Records
---
Amino acid sequence: MRVLQIAWEYPPHIVGGLGRHVAELVPALAGQGVQVAVVAPRLRDGLHEEQNDGVTVRRVDVPDTPWMDYPTFVAQTTQALQVAANELQAQEGRFDLIHAHDWLATETAVALKHQWRVPLVATIHATERGRGRGGLPSLAAQRINDLEWRLTYEAWRVIVCSHFMAHQLVDYFQTPPDKVDVVPNGVHISGTPFHDADHWLSFRRRYVADDERMVFHVGRIVYEKGLHVLLDAWPAIASKAKAHLVIAGMGEQIDALKAQAAALGIMDTVRFAGFIANEDRDRLYHAADLAIFPSLYEPFGIVALEALANACPLVVSDAGGLAEVVQHGITGLVVPTDNPGALADAVTAALNRPDMARARAAAALREVRDYYTWPRIAHATLAVYQQVMAEWQNTDWGKEFRVS
């Protein structure tokens, strides 16, 4: 089977969960025997064309038009992505199926679906209405919402990463429930990133003193991640435990959060670490006493999965897919969304009973090893492809292009 993946995030350009998902899914599908090609914008270096482990990647340059809003910028890149996809098909042979990731790929994927007359599968990683907590506050948000609807309508099947997201599609777009497949994200499990105990201690000392507990958060610094709730909870936490909060990542909310921390008088126990490489992220998971993700909106919560894969004790909000990834009291602690008091109580409890926190982390690691592996996720995705191809073979649509 030959599959074209259309994604706006692909290494070296990875911003969030979508990019990490596609980056891991593509080689895992190749490992299942699928011939995969990727078309993507060239947003952060990267070769215009490359082949790695049997996967062909074609990147296209984007227009230099900083005055555009983002949906218009995406639309201007659509034609270049279509040209790249047609060049790949001429070069490597006809694609059997198109797999589009999120609204950014909608116009390219739909145009190619009808041009090539092959089935389209879509993965919706998040929704604009969900990010807006049910609202669409701008014209750009409305345009994104419309493209999300169109992608779910045009796709033969729609993949989402959680049951929460499946319910959102039914609610927001009236997607038939029997058209939606829930396939979770996966994660790689690696060993300890430290050479020995001295290496661990020297790294930890970059962030906290020996007599301090470390609470760690990593991700995009945007409103829906709920970091303002965590800062509101921090004075109560700091009054009951000698702890330091390390926040890693960059984003539009960072200045507002620093101002909030200063106003709360907690800057001496909060550190904004900025961008960190994946290697340091994993070291921080191993060095921290607790990871925390207080999101207001989270379709899945791949960062929580990464914490679990690194055996780091975890506290999360019950936003979206987080409550599906973390089992309260078994693999972590789950608190109500946007509730600083409940968050403070859970963090304090985890810090005061490190034995129980570590036991939950060990249980989580066992679950990750059994369930959240990329070969398993690729196998489930391939099953969706096979279902779609079987349905396509039983229709007349695109029959003129089939090999008898």
---
Amino acid sequence: MPSITLPMRAWYGDDRVSFPLPEEWDVRVVDLQDRPVLTDGHIARAFASPIGTPRIADLARGKRSAAILVEDLSRPAPTARMLPPLLAELKAGGIADDDILIIIAAGSHEFMYRDGLVKKLGAEVVTRYDVMCHDCGANLACLGESSHGTSIYINKFALECDLRIGVGGIYPHGYLGFGGGSKIVLPAIAGRDSIAFLHSRLKAGGLGNLENEQRADSEEVARKVGLHAIVNAVINTRREIVGLFVGDMIAAHREGCAFARAAYAVTPVPDPDLVIANAYPMDTNLQQTGKGAWPFETVRAGGTKILVTASTEGTGQHRVSLRGRSRISPEAAVGTCDFAVFSPIVGPREIHAIFPDSLTFTTWDGVLDLLRSRYRSPQVRVAVYPCAPIQMPVTE
């Protein structure tokens, strides 16, 4: 029996796991063509030649303190590789280690503790620098209101620093078009009410569309806050850096998005009977797995949709939602066909907290039993998306 191999997030590092499928089925794996991984020299050159701003060392001169705003563990960019050259720039600009604050810009997500901080930042950074997690319900300062009507509540400790640098990744995003750029400020270090307004009252753009109200509002607020520069990575299917964009929060971000759009582009399989979408590398918790659901839009009427996720950290939290969880309706998110979630780690109760009406499986044998019961003909077309959250559909 042939098998498909899918990457899955493990507690430390990544695993490649094989899953069998009936050999007579027409299985089409929609792979990304990984770009070359950046060397240390490439990364150094990105910092030496920023896009749209002076070098970070020059931005730091005359400043007494700096806040580095960093994505949380639910985002897959290898922050630990980006921080050393950034910290070296700040040191060259005259900012001492004791005057650097690293803020986990988690928006309304759950707090991170030492184990997670070491995974995200590296042990040396955690032991050497002041690190704190943003709390969307406390320690906020109000900066008035945006032109879109958002009440601007921002982490006061970030505002107290003289220099603010955002560090993260550029990935397809269903609301703001792409991650990265100004998103590290709004929603990532904003208050609960600011986050809720952004996501519920302003129009979203859909995957890859940067011309939308949410992105415009986020960029307006980030300019008001004073996001002096960004360090944004584009990653491959092993979470390695293949593009690095340093500089202005809009100019560098737009260049990074253009690179990401090409790097993540795939041509979907038309009208498959079955879609298997793997939530890697956004598979730390169930709340993030919806980012891998876009391939389900391609399945034929009456087809089947299987979402694969590790979700090593369970359901996750989103504190603007009921009980800190965003429930995803199968009708709204994945249509009316059979929809199942497979995870070898989380159980049915956890899955149903996010996908209340889904079928749930903790073994692949259970998934195969479902599929064999549905498809008795050998003529079954299967589309597999191994890294769905960082794959983007293109049409010819």
